Amino acid sequence: MKAVLITSGGMDSATLAWHYDALGYDLILVGFDYGQRHRRELEYVHAIAAQHNAETRIVQLPIRDLLHGSALTSDDVDVPDGHYAQETMKATVVPNRNAIMLSIATGIAVAENADIVATGVHAGDHFIYPDCRPAFFDPFAQAMKAGNEGFTPPGFRLEAPFITWTKADIAKHGDALGVDYATTWSCYKGGDIHCGRCGTCVERIEAFIEADVHDPTVYEDRAFALAEIGLG
Amino acid sequence: MKAVLITSGGMDSATLAWHYDALGYDLILVGFDYGQRHRRELEYVHAIAAQHNAETRIVQLPIRDLLHGSALTSDDVDVPDGHYAQETMKATVVPNRNAIMLSIATGIAVAENADIVATGVHAGDHFIYPDCRPAFFDPFAQAMKAGNEGFTPPGFRLEAPFITWTKADIAKHGDALGVDYATTWSCYKGGDIHCGRCGTCVERIEAFIEADVHDPTVYEDRAFALAEIGLG
Fold first, then answer.
1. Is residue A133 part of a domain?
2. Among B95, B131, B147, beta carbon nearest to A96
3. How far is B141 from chain A (nearest CA, A)?
């Protein structure tokens, strides 16, 4: 059995790789270079693949200028500091990103005769990112099945096993599976170490605390995140 | 009102441009360079845009090796000659192509605050291409709406106005709208002139005949197509 996993190199997608490895799937990890500031996350895709003897595909997507306006891909828009679930975090939305990634991953799965395409989206993403919600994912998964009918193995499907979980749930699950979270990258700013201030750093710190799981990450400003989540 | 149209430069997408121009939309025509043999179709995207004072976006998609195995993108697989609705034409399927194109076009539409994303798929595509069928398109359109909720104008939607039409219906509709079919390209082989032998050339010739519309195209081997459709 073969699974194609959308892999950003962060906590969720690392846990996804451990999850499907534990279930006995051969893995193909698909990373995307779409001009994101934090392109260094792709190094972690390779590192996670090495831990699972997985294949990797890095997809070059030169669509940065076409999908303009996001803080993640535009030099003109700053990455906002603060808690993930704030209105300001909408600046980090890349238009239709998950659909684009899932469509290409599904194409790769069809070419590779894989059984499953999976993504690590979770409930904490729902507030800001409409393309992480079941209202998007469920009909999308249905479309991918129908759109490749006759060209996929029996039972071919898309899965988002964490879509109703919190990020803390993922950290707990990953900890039980033995995920090495030191080999993951979250920070949207893409500096030398995690900033501790951007939405995804704050969310990462909060998840480890809520899950009561050891956080191996070195942050530039962990105190900022602790203040944001009311523990400062 | 603004519409983003998937544009291959063929009969269907040219008619689509005329259709939405007649309905009063400002147009953005999106073409894709995915390593197809018939990359020259992209010249026709620009030509059609010029006829409508439309903007164009050509998306570079270096996914040819990732979505291997199609006659359209692989030097190792020949483009089959014959009628479009034959099993052999399955060699021309590019895995999940329409979903990939529609996802990126939707991302562009969101970035451009457009009201509509449209594609010229039609009933003649249904037999070979599962990603041209309503069973794919309807849930996909629903997913695109939900996946970009809050980031699109009211009434934002995907449309496939020809999805239940034959290609002859499209030719008739386009003829009435004044489409200049000399400025369109269909042939999958991408030579200097249309070959007249590949599935899409045969289908093109058949559509003009069935619609009783003048075919301005010069073909290398029109006799082959006529024999295939029982008029030889």
1. yes
2. B147
3. 9
